[in-house]
């Protein structure tokens, strides 16, 4: 596993925490496993395709048979769908929320499964820790909420941003400039960075604590009592592991929630 290899050069008799020389090694997979028609297929590409298959299978097998008394699996799938549709789409967006529910459900499940790869044995790599993927998801959200604003208000949507009528006229140029950068530039940027940063930070902490703990414990014959440091790192790593399970779900929810909020503000700018 690449996490173990990253600390292969660590000397536990000298180093308290075993960290790789370049942490980018933990997140970058530049070499193609194979190519298709000249297109390089990396580990990240395979994981992204796996997410799509997992989400599709989850929804297909959860909804293919409608029964009066649903199975536990079907009930779980329906609960997630209802949560996103009613608790996010309709609750945040309002009367037009239902038509955005499939999109919101898709990004919620995609991010959730992608985040779960962080704690999946033999994978241990959240694809959302690659900045390109959060940026792509944020750009899709940007396109959706901008298109929603244009469809409802016409190109007056942009006029309402740069010249807000609810603000005193002498403040409109300043507020309009701030709103323009905030809505059309900073929103997708912060949406992507929030997801990326949280997953990178969590993954890095797990790497440094659990792998360092294993290196110290496995070197007990050489370093003696100092191997106890490894036990402490390992226990802390397990605590971070449990915390990351919460972060994994929370970040998927926050991304989906904010996407719905942005659509709502485009449809109802007066709110």
Q: Which blocks of ≥5 consecutive residues have pLDDT under 50?
A: 1-8
Beta-strand content estimate: under 5%
Helical proportion, percent range: 55-70%
Taking all Cα atoms into account, the compactness measure Rg is: 23 Å
The biggest beta sheet is recorded as: 2 strands, antiparallel
The CA-CA distance between the termini, in Å, is: 50 Å
How many structural units, i.e. domains? 1
Report on this structure:
This protein has helices spanning about 1-5, 45-65, 70-95, 100-115, 130-155, 155-160, 170-220, 220-225, 230-265, and strands at about 35, 40. With about 270 residues, it is mainly α. It has one domain (about 1-265). Strands 1-2 form a two-stranded antiparallel ribbon. Strand 1 (about 35) and strand 2 (about 40) form a beta hairpin. Helix 2 packs across helix 3, helix 3 (about 70-95) crosses helix 9 and helix 5 (about 130-155) packs antiparallel against helix 7. The longest helix is centred in the C-terminal third of the chain and has 47 residues, at about 170-220. It starts with a helix and ends with a helix. The model is unreliable at about 1-10 (pLDDT under 50).
Itemize the secondary structure elements and their pairings:
Layout: H1 2-6, E1 34-36, E2 39-41, H2 43-63, H3 72-93, H4 101-116, H5 132-153, H6 156-162, H7 172-218, H8 220-223, H9 228-267
Antiparallel strand pairs: 1-2
Helix pairs in contact: 2-3, 2-4, 3-4, 3-9, 4-9, 5-7, 5-9, 6-7, 7-9
Kindly summarize this structure in a few lines:
With 271 residues, this protein is mostly helical. 68% of the residues lie in helices and 2% in strands.
